[in-house]
Amino acid sequence: MSEPLASPPPGRPRDAALDANILRAAMELLGESGIHAVTMDAVAQRAGAGKASLYRRWKSKDELLADALTLHSPIDVEVDTGTLRGDLVKIYEHYYGIGNHVMQAAVQEMLGNVRQHMAWTEKVAPERLTARRAKVRALVERAVVRGEIAAPDDMDLLLDLVPAMILYRYNTRSQKVTRASIARFVDGLVMPLAQKAARAPQP
Amino acid sequence: MSEPLASPPPGRPRDAALDANILRAAMELLGESGIHAVTMDAVAQRAGAGKASLYRRWKSKDELLADALTLHSPIDVEVDTGTLRGDLVKIYEHYYGIGNHVMQAAVQEMLGNVRQHMAWTEKVAPERLTARRAKVRALVERAVVRGEIAAPDDMDLLLDLVPAMILYRYNTRSQKVTRASIARFVDGLVMPLAQKAARAPQP
Amino acid sequence: MSEPLASPPPGRPRDAALDANILRAAMELLGESGIHAVTMDAVAQRAGAGKASLYRRWKSKDELLADALTLHSPIDVEVDTGTLRGDLVKIYEHYYGIGNHVMQAAVQEMLGNVRQHMAWTEKVAPERLTARRAKVRALVERAVVRGEIAAPDDMDLLLDLVPAMILYRYNTRSQKVTRASIARFVDGLVMPLAQKAARAPQP
Amino acid sequence: MSEPLASPPPGRPRDAALDANILRAAMELLGESGIHAVTMDAVAQRAGAGKASLYRRWKSKDELLADALTLHSPIDVEVDTGTLRGDLVKIYEHYYGIGNHVMQAAVQEMLGNVRQHMAWTEKVAPERLTARRAKVRALVERAVVRGEIAAPDDMDLLLDLVPAMILYRYNTRSQKVTRASIARFVDGLVMPLAQKAARAPQP
DNA sequence: GATTAAACGAGACGGTACGTCCAGTCTTCAG
DNA sequence: CTGAAGACTGGACGTACCGTCTCGTTTAATC
User: Does A178 share its domain with A124?
Assistant: First the structure.
């Protein structure tokens, strides 16, 4: 009932499959050869598309890249290990491509190099990052409901901790994301802060 | 005795003032028009220098930029407010240019955009960031000695927290560095973690 | 007997008015903004047509342009001033749009610029230029019959003289076609050559 | 004494050899593969130059092409066969590359196709075409002095005849320049017109 | 009237060339 | 040898346009 009567716009419709095809081509190039191989010509060629088709969809290379990175970084996972610590480790491993080589290579590249002049912020965040934040927030709230931890003092800060540390350490000291580093951030930062509230008032 | 007898190198000596002049030109352009205005030609022209003089001093634009950003972000501050919380807030405010408009604008730009293809990591970190880390570490250790807090479980993580959050929030949500945000990170993250160790074992 | 019984092809018939509409649009653009404004998209848009309708009628832009230029440059004129000189001046003035401002502007443009990668030759010549040549040839032959001149030694050369000079001078020295220049070519080239044959054998 | 004291402009001077190198590359491509092979990238690559060096010297492809065609079409020939007819045939054959296959191919290409949107006129004419005209004019004047012909009524027209016919016939009927066609134009047009003046007043 | 098949406006598509910009290097002349 | 000036190679970017294709719609001629 919402829009059933809207007549389609005139002219040949966009090929929806091409969108995905282009984004996939960009990610492949990124994963295979690094950011310097991701030129608009190369993406177009690999996608079997013309450059015009790229620029019809995205105003610039940056916007294409932003979309490529976010659309190909998965959101939907079902995580339920029974403990908050286990849930967090598992979901972050999933988000950062641990155990998925192509994905991981691309993520690493992106962390350090992708954001050129990219107005990364407004492009990526709204669509994917907030969705991820919501997922993690749900895990924490479930732990609260379950009685595992008390409600955190500052949930927003808590949710940013792991991605912030990963980004910072990659950018300042080239430290890659690993299973171990994720565990360290969860055990050393998130869990202590989450448990603090529950523990402090006890005595 | 070691140096005075060495005969001076032949030819015209380097103009030491030029180094600073070039770096200043780079920072001005960054502050005025953003990172995309910082081209080597533009820097050379504004500094009244030739491009060769830039490349004689730095191997690449990245290195020049790294130097420019770090040299203009001061390290040496004497901070002693009596409490760890006060020390941390003060030193971070100093590092991020709170209260210095030109500096602050440049830092904001840098946070979001500078790292182009820049191998930012190896250029900036060794020289400035580690010096800053050492400063902050000293503040924390002084607080331990003073008995204000116990020795942190994972000092390395603690030292990265504030800069990591600043970087992440700027990059993903365009949040600028303010006096308030620094206080929030210190109060909501660093201090709770530092005090946790001291508090937990008490009962 | 050949055509009348052929059943018309099935489907919607071509809109004959559209042909003229498209050609007119092309000529308008040419006259208003020069050859660089005559893109297939622009022609289609101005004609209120789709590009497919253009390409259904002409195999390429060149052919469309050739048609546009020739269809709008009239062939059929009745010229009979009594002298060959008068006939030639009059017909060339007609062909080159002297006294027709829109037409003349288009012709000027065409002379200098139209022939892009255009295989101008095979497209235009057969249909219009040869018709024009035939017209001029008739004028000359009439003058021969009338006894005004003897049969020229090399008629083919004679017929090309004026258009060749107009084309060349426009292309090499930007000289536009005017009433005066046509008169000069006729009086200084065509007439002397036509009369020569008649005069030389006299003594 | 004219400019000996002018100090050279600062900076690295243009590489004069590169100019010729680029023009040669353009001509080679034109001669070998036709006008469609003459892209700016291809010219730059063959010349071992960057595209910036092409655009530093010429504002557009058209201007480069105009220079290439004119600079490589020779002017200086010593022609003295003893008769005007012989001189003209010989110099035109030289100008149109008869007996020089690479040159001739390029000229043919140029006649029909090169001038795309090119403001051919102002680029080519002043520098080379007028020089050629002067050469031919000298031949005619020498014949006048020698008493072979009388002074022509309209010298300017005479000088344009052969190139105009060549251009026109190529463009409208794809007729290539040959030894025979040059002879035909000289014998059928230029010589009769030149001799007419001398002959007519006799009786 | 229903069917059919082509023409129609609109605009997306692949491809190709253009002209611009910038990093990093090289070359000149002056000090 | 340093310095300013600026030319050099190389390569990516974003634009423009051609000729083709694919939609949904309209229009005759036929059934």
Answer: yes
